[in-house]
Amino acid sequence: MPGSLPASAEASWPKDVGIVALEIYFPSQYVDQEELEKFDGVGAGKYTIGLGQSKMGFCSDREDINSLCLTVVQRLMERNNLSYDCIGRLEVGTETIIDKSKSVKTVLMQLFEDSGNTDVEGIDTTNACYGGTAALFNAVNWVESSSWDGRYALVVAGDIAVYATGSARPTGGAGAVAMLVGPNATLVLERGLRGTHMQHAYDFYKPDMVSEYPVVDGKLSIQCYLSALDRCYSTYRKKIHAQWQKEGVDKPFTLDDFSFMIFHSPYCKLVQKSLARLLLNDFITEPNPNTENGVYTGLDSFRDVKLEDTYFDRDVEKAFLKSSAEIFDQKTKASLLVSRENGNMYTPSVYGCLASVLAQYSPQQLAGQRIGVFSYGSGFAATLYSIKVSPDATPGKMSIVGVLYL
């Protein structure tokens, strides 16, 4: 259950601000990716092995972005026995629109009517798949600001991902995640540890107002994703190293310092490649890597590669996928449960990965662990940040619930 709020917001800086409770919801109907391979007339394994996908969730004509978000919010509030008057900020991250003016957030205010609470800040935030992370940061910043009035913030990330017939269609999906944000959280966003990269590109965008389908440049999108990952990881490492030096710890930050590493997941295979890429970053920046034994064994020939030359280098990709296979199994594989079985949810994608980790490990296993989070939105915007699980992650302190039709 969520912890109690302080009597007032007049105390000093709120402690341990982060995610207090989390709910996930996605539709019950899905397309089996093996069946989709047959229907599309592509080779067996193109979607299941090549993309790493098993199923793809989709909405019927009974659901839309508003209903997804209404459902996930109502369930979070009811399961945690929360009154709607304890919410002071509600922010939605989505790129799925029904109305070009009215926000999803204002639709969600229907749930607040009986409580009489209309004093709720926040609005929709949009930038492809990054909107949910921007909404989360806004909520955390609100709690840590002079505007905070002592109430919880509520963040909703929801989307319906659909593509025109073609190679991108099997990377669709749908769902929503709701997160209660406040102090004394179990999942604490580590203050000051965010590496962000923002740039302009048309890798994925929706210029046609009468079509729900995006325009996608697949190769450019992968390049943008991986280059943003490089930049964000570099910035994050510099910030945490500076923080460690102040604490008297003088060592470089590496993948070893993440207990789990989760990613925005357009499709599962890209996540596996991304984890391998972080190992490549570690290897290049390591002054004296041991290539005789250990994780860097046999990687001598890649010592002088430049990151910007390796986005589509098959030799580099193959070598580091092999070297990082055990790390992937330990730190990332569990996070892909929802992504594999439901597909890409856009803004909730990375938070579906977070829910997947929380659902498969006990509170005792997670207590005190650091979870790395990489969020990417086309266009493009990205951040790598970290969550620290409270040492007091006892059963019942955090509510991780959802409707999982797997």
Automatic annotation (TrEMBL):
InterPro entries (alphabetical): HMG_CoA_synt_AS, HMG_CoA_synt_C_dom, HMG_CoA_synth_N, HMG_CoA_synthase_euk, Thiolase-like
Transmembrane segments: none
E.C. numbers: 2.3.3.10
EC class of the enzyme, as a word: transferase
Keywords: Cholesterol biosynthesis, Cholesterol metabolism, Lipid biosynthesis, Lipid metabolism, Steroid biosynthesis, Steroid metabolism, Sterol biosynthesis, Sterol metabolism, Transferase
Residue stretches making up the Hydroxymethylglutaryl-coenzyme A synthase N-terminal domain: 13-185
Pfam entry (one): HMG_CoA_synt_C
Residue numbers binding CoA: 221, 269, 273
Domain Hydroxymethylglutaryl-coenzyme A synthase C-terminal residues, every copy: 187-399
CDD domains, alphabetized: init_cond_enzymes
GO molecular function: hydroxymethylglutaryl-CoA synthase activity
Pathway(s) this gene product operates in, as recorded in its UniProt entry: Metabolic intermediate biosynthesis; (R)-mevalonate biosynthesis; (R)-mevalonate from acetyl-CoA: step 2/3
Biological processes, Gene Ontology terms: acetyl-CoA metabolic process; cholesterol biosynthetic process; farnesyl diphosphate biosynthetic process, mevalonate pathway
Signal peptide start-end: none
Protein role: Catalyzes the condensation of acetyl-CoA with acetoacetyl-CoA to form HMG-CoA.
Similarity comment: family membership: Belongs to the thiolase-like superfamily. HMG-CoA synthase family.
NCBIfam families, sorted: HMG-CoA-S_euk
Annotated protein name in UniProt: Hydroxymethylglutaryl-CoA synthase
